[in-house]
Amino acid sequence: MHLGRWTTLSRFALFAILGVIATGSQALAKNIMVFAPHPDDEILMSAGAIADGITRGDTVTVVVVTNGDISGVAKGYTRERESVAALAYLGLNDQKIVFLGYGDGSTIQIYKADTDTSVITSPAGQTQTYGARASTTITPTTGRRVSLRPRRSCA
Asked: Which of 29, 49, 63, 112 has the fewest beta carbons under 10 Å from its own?
């Protein structure tokens, strides 16, 4: 009787192992979310983790908190374009990049604001997020068009 129970457990273990092997990487896929304070920080600090996750089939999402415009609005747009292009090079779809659009250097003012409706002016003179942009760029390595229109923003 004890032997019969062991056989049943052995069969269960065998089927469980076969199930994991059959599903492959899908059973081990993870959700990875990278938060970067500025555009380009996600590449400088996490490019290896992002690339490894994409290679393994994990769901990778990158959230960029500020718009990188401490040196001006034009520089902010440039930094965002560069981030999108670099992440596309790693294989990340632009649908998985979220720009929250907070003014560079103004997050502490937002944190310390008296009310949640306070208007904060960024060092670049912005009082709102960049919002939806219709511009696109061509990535140099793949030749694919990459949209720079953020999917979500905090206004």
From this structure: 112
Place of tokens 């912005």: 126
CA end-to-end span of the chain: 68
Please tell me which residue, 7 or 31, carries the higher pLDDT value: 31
Interatomic CA distance for residues 16 and 23, integer angstroms: 11
Domains of the chain: 29-147 (3.40.50.10320)
| Mean pLDDT along residues 8-26 | 44
Token reading at 52: 């490894």
3-state SS record for the chain:
CHHHHHHHHHHHHHHHHHHHHHHHHHHHCCEEEEEECCCCHHHHHHHHHHHHHHHHCCEEEEEEEECCCCCCHHHHHHHHHHHHHHHHHHCCCHHHEEEEEECCCCHHHHHHCCCCCCCCCCCCCCCCCCCCCCCEEECCCCCCEEECCCCCCCC
